Amino acid sequence: MVRIIPMASSIRPSLSSFRFSGGVPSTRFGVSLSPFHLPRRLLFSHLGSTVPQLQFFGLKASKLLRAEGSRVGTPLVGNVVQASTAAAEETALEWVKKDKRRMLHVVYRVGDLDRTIKFYTECLGMKLLRKRDIPEERYTNAFLGYGPEDSHFVIELTYNYGIDKYDIGTAFGHFGIAVEDVAKTVELIKAKGGKVTREPGPVKGGSTVIAFIEDPDGYKFELLERGPTPEPLCQVMLRVGDLGRSINFYEKAFGMELLRTRDNPEYKYTIAMMGYGPEDKNAVLELTYNYGVTDYDKGNAYAQVFVDNIDFLKELE
Prior knowledge:
Blueprint (H helix, E strand, L loop, with lengths): L17 E4 L2 E4 L13 E4 L8 H5 L17 H24 L3 E8 L3 H10 L4 E8 L4 E7 L8 E7 L11 E8 L2 H10 L3 E8 L6 E6 L5 E6 L7 E7 L3 H12 L2 E8 L4 E7 L8 E7 L11 E7 L1 H7 L1
Parallel strand pairs: 4-7, 8-11, 12-15
Antiparallel strand pairs: 1-2, 3-16, 4-16, 5-6, 6-7, 8-12, 9-10, 10-11, 13-14, 14-15
């Protein structure tokens, strides 16, 4: 089973610095990790991620890729290795396609946990689902959302003892929340002292009514006007430098479906919506490519998204 070896740390670093070597996760910059246990789920961090698919599936796919270490030798051996690697990739991708997956929760860091919980419950109508303190690792988690964790996409807030500010960076964009009446929601948020950064109105280049707000740490939330939905916490928007590469990564590594794309040349951006089902019923990733921008500042505030992938991990055990 996959194990991430804990090391002492006062901060839970972004997994965008992960790399996998021989099935063992490590960090690119020597950042120490708090323990994550993944008995029934996969996690990914998109920001700047270029993890090769076979290395990622190498969580315990070494049994599939043993020939990988035999690249030195005759051309015949090299051909056998390439064929074996191709077969391994095909097998891994078939596992991903067959099981049922969904986005479980998104993890990010905040400077004042109680302040953020108050904002999310009073202004955004979320429920505090659970809270846990890990004093030996010097952090506290709080899980919030619009329904139980076993059936809804939820937020996992992390407070690291003594750290009250983080750099959100430019790669993380915003979260999306579906509401039936954007204008009324904005008025409620204003009454509670919330910060509205974009008043209600049609999205640029479209007709959907939206608004933007900021939480106390500066994370942005897009309010989208929709009918009733089982998944109000509906989007995580990330900016990417190569849209085609990112789409390919999520399709192959996580079995996500490209739901739609929209190019807006007037405002010089293209978006791709990816996920495990229709946008009106499931949480999805919104990948945004801004013309000519190939790199973003990743900051240290946004952490990762967990994806439920039970059957895949059982196959790898």
